[in-house]
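Quality-control log, excerpt.
Job 1 of 2 completed; input and output follow.
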Amino acid sequence: MTDEIKKLTCRDTTYLVISARDTPLSNQQIAELDAHLQTCSACRTAKQQFAQVFSQLDTLLARGEEP
């Protein structure tokens, strides 16, 4: 039995991209996210931008932890 891939909105996609930073996505969520990203260039761009912001945040937070 296979799960049907739900069509996500851009808002749903944003929530999943942000959530994936803190908690692993389920296989179903990954499939839904990938399906949306294949068809939405705006969400692909937003995902890349979130990745850059998260990377910069990680760098800044690591600097703040140094003695």
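Job 2 of 2 completed; input and output follow.
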Amino acid sequence: MDTRQLTALLQLSSPALPIGGYSYSQGFEAAVERGLVDGEASACLWIRQQLELVVAQCEAPIWALLFDGWAGGDWEQLDYWNSWFHASRETQEIRQETEQMGWSLVKLATDLDWGDAGARRYLLGQATVTLPAAHAYAAYALGIARSPGLAAYLFTWLENQVMAAIKTVPLGQMAAQRILNQLRPNISTVCDEAFSRAAQRPPRIHTLAPQFAILSSRHETQYSRLFRS
């Protein structure tokens, strides 16, 4: 990776990227409210299980399939997997999250002229663009390779989860860095698994995560909350 690609990757994975990721906890706040997470150890366990048992099983391989669609100019594949991922979002909050963040990233990519004008017109013409579809496009458009692009997507997710832990458990900054330090090496394994799952025919993907869905549903009516999901 040359310096230009590296700096593009850093921009795409920066917390300053204005797509609203800081607004969401993906059920983490509800897990704290229900007493499933109450300190550093339980926060680390929750985030690791979400990464390995939820994200790695579906969202990460979907990202890989969408990146391949952009790289190959396969509009049919892009339509299919973008719609498939959108339909797989089990609660109103989770669906609204991927819609809002996906659209915000499309708007950013359009305003900054990332990638091919035809591809941007395709994105703007879609009724819904999920976050994996928009992020995979941004990575491809910026000349970022498949593996580091997915790693950036996963690290952004991990960092947002740790920030949610800081605000809701609450945790101190050093505890947050210990969690990041412990889980960051797992991203490489998750990438490998995602690419393996995406390469199967049909892709080996599943979304069975009942506790995650239940907590997301409960979060919609939680009395007091900091996050939108």
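Post-run check on job 2. The first helix runs from residue 3 to 12.
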